[in-house]
Design goal:
The structure holds 2 protein chains of 2 kinds. By secondary structure, chain A is α/β, with parallel strands linked by helices. Helix content of chain A is about 40%, strand content about 15%. Chain A is globular. The chains are: A alpha/beta, B alpha+beta.
Chain lengths: ~525, ~250
């Protein structure tokens, strides 16, 4: 009997040598006359253990990691194909503490299933949400999404139910569903992991969205930097089309829905929803003013649901289990779970899906294990490159949109990037402005010119040139960017800059308390 | 007031004043501008309503012959009950809106935005200029340019040595004076339907480009002049005005 061996094929595991491990396993099995079947699953998200391989022993999966090609022979010698002990043995996958302690709703199948197999998806609860949706009807699904309290996971945290209801009520047709997979925030990767690990889950979520709002066409807009995700999505769309889960008359109902994969061209700003719509229409990726909201006039001027990948991938659970099951998790107005992404100088990086309400300290120190360098923690940037830096005393803030906003930050797409005490925060402030300058679409003046002036002003602070005037001008510039920009890129760039200056004035040659 | 208001063809309404966005026809909508009730057709912008009410809202990328764009961020206003400072050109009027076109913070923000423009505009071309850009400078209190000692005066990055395209026999393009408002690009699309112009690059590198980085003469430009008419900052300007030839001021030779 053939032994199934899981060797992850997602971008992170590939970067850590998973392909070499796969080749070594095949060669070792051939030379020993062992019959093995390789499954290239997505990563479970425990990056410090990648490449983490799993052996299916009579239905139970045993994990080993991090495995290099050189370890393969010894794994065979030790009897890993029967789940035997080995220095790299991690025990049963389902019992690995860092995994077992999570609440995996959106990520329920990521790492578990074969992303190439529609059958495997179905055997792990796939399409249960769509089946129920087709039975209970669009109105009930809209109600479920409202009840769930699900909010946009791309960063803006807008209530998904309200957005869907707006599109459903809009009189114009046709309507569209767009999945935003232009995951450009540094230190974030949950969208990528969904697409690489559970592509059918995203398709199911989009199909449910289309059914709920009355759309028959969906688009996944994926950044070009995600070749494995693009490949996985294209394969999954083709498989779903072949088996009738996309196309005309889905599930035997009078409901048509199809999905198209579109690839970006490297512009961060195309992750901003209106720029993305321009890009999909074949135009230069420039921000549109709002109103009109995309829910009223979106793609080709028609009502459009634009949701982040993680938002849409959370829908199958809600549709299958009902809105209240999802809303049972969480804190305050932040309901359900969030796949938090731990990155930077951290001992145990990866994705941790947890209910809202646990503290940032539990994430950084508990799951994350503190800094990778072992040096003292200094700061963490929460919410991507436009998020605030938070200091140690702010780590007791709960994972909650409102609580983090009250602490002066933003939760964004749920990325946490950790820095130890060797970080130069003036350099990081300069980087924030440089990022805005590099990625500005060039439409609005505060962002187009202001970001470049921001880089110059921070540089003045760093080298002590006209420090006081430059500091005063930088604070004024931050106000113009925040209050005058057309979109969130210019509008939020002051957040990391100001927080760095406020928390760590000494890095800028400034006296404490002078940054306000 | 009742009955549909037919404004789109009534150019006399302008009376020499740029309404900021194209007039529309629509049902009457009454809103409050700086405390004064004003009635305009539905579909109008707040900028148009403000202009109709006699308020002066500084602007650069907006003009009533082109659809609103929302890029210059100078026409910001405050609207009761709304967060932030929306651009009046891209905000449609709603009944009962209470709009303020002047406040201390608006003055500060508009000035801050215009300072950014000035940080990349040739200093020698500010005093004595007669373009819309210069009118806006005066409106925000910067008619003389950046004040002495302003940090932006030492700005390292600029376009003072940018493209000077004199290939077209009738007009020239001086990138140093371009404020990248896209009015020329939009005029080429919306008025002439030629689509000869675009913006090339992004961020600070954004620049007006005829066709794919060609000269005006070798591009699809048909010399209609719509872009020159639309340019608010004299970056696109008729050659006839310079019978002795066009010269950039010495201070901005690279």
């Amino acid at each position: 009997m053939s032994t199934r061996i899981f060797v992850p094929g997602d971008a992170m595991s590939l970067a850590l040598g998973a392909d070499d491990v796969a080749v070594a396993i095949t060669a070792e099995a051939t030379s020993r006359g062992r019959d093995v079947t390789l499954v290239r699953n997505g990563s479970h998200g425990l990056f410090w253990l990648e490449p983490m391989i799993e052996i299916d022993v009579r239905g139970t999966r045993y994990a080993y990691g991090p495995v290099t090609a050189d370890d393969v022979a010894s794994l065979f010698d030790a009897g890993a194909l029967e789940g035997a002990d080995h220095p790299l043995a991690l025990g049963r996958t389902s019992e690995i503490p860092a995994l077992a302690s999570q609440t995996r709703l959106t990520f329920q199948r990521v790492g578990v299933v074969d992303p190439r197999s529609l059958d495997d998806f179905m055997m792990h609860g796939g399409y249960a949400g769509l089946r129920r949706a087709l039975e209970v009807g669009a109105e009930q699904i809209l109600t479920d999404v409202e009840t769930s309290g699900l909010r946009g996971r791309g960063g803006a945290a807008f209530p998904t139910g309200i957005k869907w209801r707006t599109v459903a009520n809009a009189p114009a047709t046709p309507k569209y569903v767009v999945a935003n997979a232009d995951e450009g925030d540094s230190g974030t990767f949950s969208d990528r992991m969904v697409m690489e690990g559970d592509p059918f889950g995203l398709i199911e979520g989009m199909t449910i969205a289309g059914f709920a709002v009355g759309a028959s066409h969906g688009v996944v807009y994926i950044r070009s930097e995600y070749p494995q995700a693009i490949d996985a999505m294209r394969h999954a769309v083709a498989a779903a089309q072949e088996s009738g889960w996309l196309g005309a008359g889905i599930g035997g109902f009078r409901f048509d829905f199809d999905v198209e994969i579109r690839v970006g061209a490297g512009a961060y700003i195309c992750g901003e929803e209106t720029s993305m719509l321009e890009s999909i229409e074949g135009k230069r990726g420039m921000v549109r003013p709002k109103p009109p909201l995309p829910a009223i006039e979106g793609l080709y001027g028609k009502p459009t649901v634009v949701n982040n990948v993680v938002t849409i991938a959370s829908v199958p659970y809600i549709a299958a289990q009902g809105g209240e099951a999802y809303a049972a998790h969480g804190l305050g107005r932040s309901r359900g779970t969030l796949p938090v992404q731990l990155a930077g100088n951290i001992a145990r990086g990866g994705v941790v899906e947890v209910p809202f309400g646990i503290t940032l300290r539990e994430l950084v120190e508990g799951w994350g294990g503190g800094t990778r360098s072992g040096r003292p923690f200094r700061t963490a940037q929460v919410g991507g490159p436009l998020g605030a830096y938070l200091a140690d005393h702010q780590l007791d803030t709960p994972l909650d949109y409102e609580a983090i906003a009250a602490a002066g930050g933003l939760l964004g797409h749920g990325g946490i990037v950790v820095f130890d005490d060797t970080v130069d925060m003036a350099h990081m402030a300069s980087f924030a402005m440089a990022f805005c300058a590099a990625e500005s679409c060039g439409k609005c003046t505060p962002c187009r010119i202001g970001s470049t002036r921001g880089v110059e002003l921070v540089e003045n602070l760093r080298i002590g040139r006209r420090r006081e005037e430059s500091h005063a001008q930088l604070l004024e510039l931050c106000e113009v960017l925040e209050q005058g920009s057309l979109c969130a890129l210019g509008g939020l760039t002051p957040m990391p800059v100001r927080s760095a200056m406020t928390l760590f004035p000494e890095d800028f040659g400034l006296a404490a308390g002078s940054a306000r | 007031m009742s009955g549909r208001m037919i404004w789109s063809e009534v150019r006399d309404l302008r009376d020499g004043v740029d309404l900021g966005t194209p007039p529309r026809d629509g049902e009457p909508v009454t809103l409050r501008i700086d405390g004064i009730d004003t009635t305009v057709p539905a579909g109008s912008s707040v900028l148009l309503a403000a202009t109709a009410a006699g308020a002066t809202v500084p602007k650069l990328c907006a003009t009533d012959t082109l659809e609103c764009f929302g890029s210059c961020r100078v026409c910001l206003v405050e609207i009761e009950g709304r967060r932030g400072y929306p651009a009046s050109c891209t905000t449609p009027v709603e009944a009962g809106m209470d709009v303020r076109t002047q406040s201390e913070q608006l003055t500060k923000l508009r000035r801050g935005v215009v300072e950014l423009y000035l940080s990349d505009y040739p200093a020698d071309d500010i005093v004595g200029g007669w373009s819309e850009f210069h009118t806006t400078l005066a409106q925000v209190g910067l008619a003389d340019g950046l004040p002495e000692g302003h940090v932006y005066r030492d700005a390292e990055h600029h376009h003072h040595d940018g493209v000077l395209d004199e290939s077209n026999p009738y007009f020239l393009f001086d990138q140093a004076k371009c404020i990248v408002c896209s009015r020329c690009v939009r005029a080429c699309e919306e008025i002439q339907g030629t689509f000869a112009l675009t913006i090339d690059g992004r961020g600070f590198s954004s620049k007006v480009s005829p066709s794919q980085a060609e000269s005006f003469l070798s591009s699809e430009c048909v010399s209609c002049g719509a872009c020159v008419q639309a340019c608010p900052s004299d970056a696109l300007i008729e050659k006839r005005l310079f019978p002795e030839g066009y010269h950039r001021a010495d201070s901005r030779q690279a």
